[in-house]
Specification:
The complex is a heterodimer.
Chain A (H helix, E strand, L loop, with lengths): L3 E12 L7 E12 L3 E5 L6 H8 L7 E6 L2 E2 H6 L3 E4 L11 H11 L4 H14 L15 H13 L5 E5 L7 H18 L2 E5 L3 H7 L2 E6 L4 E7 L13 H18 L1
Parallel strand pairs in A: 3-8, 3-9, 6-7, 7-8
Antiparallel strand pairs in A: 1-2, 1-4, 4-5, 9-10
Chain B lengths: L1 H35 L4 H6 L11 H8 L10 H36 L1 H14 L4 H15 L9 H25 L4 H9 L4 H39 L5 H10 L5 H30 L9
Helix pairs in contact in B: 1-11, 3-11, 4-5, 4-7, 4-9, 4-11, 6-7, 6-9, 7-9, 9-10, 9-11, 10-11
Classes of the chains: A alpha/beta, B mainly alpha.
């Protein structure tokens, strides 16, 4: 690992500083994520995992400390479009077709029409929705919409993918299917992924390491390395998988106590 | 789509028939009271009178449309049509100007919270000035002061300005709400792409505002007709439905059904502009009505 994809140094985040409703969301966070890693952030609600993701995305600045992405300040990385982002809601623009949604970041980057369309079709093949290019989002199920959102976030080949509970609103079966799909895409594209979740099995199944956070103020309680090798649906029934699930669960219990 | 519009036309037609029936029914009720005389005295003196001068029969109003006024060469409905088109032009120009002005104000206010807080109260305050009060001023200004346009200023353009005054407001207020309607994650998405304010405006805020704008356009379209008619009446502009209503009101005793027919014409004009906006909305927003594959 020559260069770190994400490097958070002593970052703190305080909302409404100095006011009655002051919230200490994050307290001196140190986190290093190497290129091509898949890191999940997990913790009780209010532990600041989404805030940490937004700090990395430079959607909100840290109150103190620093955040670097690909060796440069997070804001520079945002302006350079170094990362793609996916949210809990797919957040597709319902007035645009599926292909046009995927083309949105490419449009903003000044790609020409035929390149955009070609890439959109490529991405739709990647998320296995090739026949839906000219449909509108309202015609798609929740899981399909989320796949389009992932295609959108990856369309410009960002080296980093930031995901904020992207499968949170999906049913269990769709969710597991999407996890398998995401891993396949991750292996294909060698993108670094930072993934926020509150599902323990999801964190264990997906990650190379699980960051367990504690609440009020948000701190990193422990980092659990996971190495399940190539994962498929059988992995979910593997004793090694359950072992890691137990380990993460105990770490979370320790945090909540 | 044509079917939906046809259905809406039908709804309005049924509405007009129902109004006609209610009118006729009330008139019959009033006449019955008049015939009874004694017991109904109290109510009879409170309720509006229903004799043929106060409430001409619906059949008279409708047949008046087909009659040729004395000394004229076309039927009354023909006059109403010409005058309706004249008023429609004033209203349409006023509506377009109001829509553009309203949208511009909405974009300006959406630009910054400071502008919104500073300017929105004035936008609202502008609507507290009665339309009837400003109408004559606008017409006088139009006649005296406007010579910087390449074309000659005409009175109907002043009426359009009065209609604009009524139409920009709903567009500005609803448009602002629409521009502020995108979900936080959609705004964050644009921010994550480091999109400029203008890119966010064109690709997210404006498209998201379209349904809100159409809601406003429906209000604004009917308001523009009201503005044009009131503008004509209070400014004394010749040629439109407002002028016709004023004229027929003045000679009411010799032909009450002509006033009613003129008002009917104004109502139909309002319905027509509403239907036009609705049809355009269906055309633009049709894709949002498709059903989900589940």
């Amino acid at each position: 690992m020559s260069e770190l994809a994400v490097e958070v140094r002593e970052a703190s985040k305080i909302f409404n500083r100095g006011k009655a409703n002051e919230v200490h969301a994050l307290d001196t966070i140190d986190l290093s994520i190497g290129a091509s890693e898949f890191v999940t952030l997990i913790g009780p609600s209010g532990c600041g995992k989404s805030t940490l993701l937004r700090l990395i995305a430079s959607l909100t600045p840290p109150t103190s400390g620093s955040v670097a992405v690909n060796g440069k300040p997070a804001e520079k990385a945002r302006l350079d479009k170094d990362y793609g982002m996916a949210f809990q809601r797919a957040g597709l623009f319902d007035w645009r077709t599926v292909a046009k949604n995927i083309e949105l970041p490419l449009e903003l980057m000044g790609w020409n029409r035929s390149d955009r369309r070609a890439r959109a079709e490529e991405m739709l093949a990647l998320v296995k929705l090739p026949e839906f290019a000219d449909h509108h989002p309202a015609e798609l199920s929740g899981g399909m919409q989320q796949r389009v959102a992932i295609a959108r976030s990856l369309s410009f080949n960002p080296s980093l993918l930031l995901m904020d509970e992207p499968f949170g609103a999906l049913d269990e079966m769709t969710r597991e299917h999407m996890q398998t799909e995401l891993l396949r895409i991750w292996e294909d594209t060698e993108t670094t992924v930072v993934f926020v979740t509150h599902s323990i099995p999801e964190a264990v199944f997906l990650s190379t390491s699980v960051v367990v956070m504690s609440a009020r103020p948000g701190r990193i309680a422990s980092v659990i390395e996971v190495d399940l090798g190539r994962r498929d649906d059988m992995t979910r029934e593997d004793p090694a998988f359950f072992e890691k699930v137990t380990e993460v669960r105990e770490a979370l219990r320790a945090v909540e106590a | 789509m044509a079917l939906r519009v046809a259905r809406q036309v039908l709804v309005f037609a049924v509405f007009l028939v129902l109004v006609g029936l209610a009118y006729t029914g009330y008139k019959a009720f009033g006449q019955a009271i008049d015939d009874e005389q004694v017991d109904w005295l109290v109510i009879g003196s409170i309720l509006p009178r229903t004799d043929d001068l106060t409430m001409p029969p619906v059949t008279d109003i409708l047949s008046e449309l087909g009659e040729t006024p004395r000394g004229e060469d076309q039927v009354f409905a023909g006059f109403l049509l010409d005058e309706g088109l004249f008023t429609l032009r004033e209203a349409a120009v006023g509506f377009l100007a109001g829509a553009i002005l309203g949208l511009a104000i909405a974009i300006l206010l959406a630009r910054s919270q400071l502008l919104e807080q500073g300017l929105l109260p004035y936008v609202i305050a502008s609507q507290t000035v009665p339309l009837i009060a400003i109408a004559p001023i606008v017409v006088v200004w139009g006649r005296k002061n406007v010579d910087f346009f390449p074309w000659e200023w005409q009175d109907w353009m002043s009426v359009s300005i009065i209609a604009t005054y009524l139409t920009f407001f709903p567009v500005a207020v609803n448009g602002l709400r629409g521009l502020q309607s995108p979900r936080p994650e959609n705004m964050e998405l644009m921010e994550s792409y480091a999109a400029s304010w203008r890119q966010t405006l064109w690709r997210l805020r404006l498209p998201a505002a379209v349904p809100y704008l159409f809601a406003a356009f429906k209000i604004a379209a009917t308001a523009s007709v009201v503005g044009a008619i009131v503008g004509e009446i209070s400014a004394g502009v010749e040629g439109g439905l407002g002028r016709r209503i004023l004229l027929e009101a003045q000679r009411y005793t010799t032909g009450p059904e002509r006033l009613y027919a003129s008002v009917l014409g104004a109502a139909v004009l309002g319905i027509v502009v509403f239907l036009i906006v609705t049809a355009v909305e269906r055309l633009v927003l049709g894709h949002q009505r498709r059903e989900a594959v589940t």
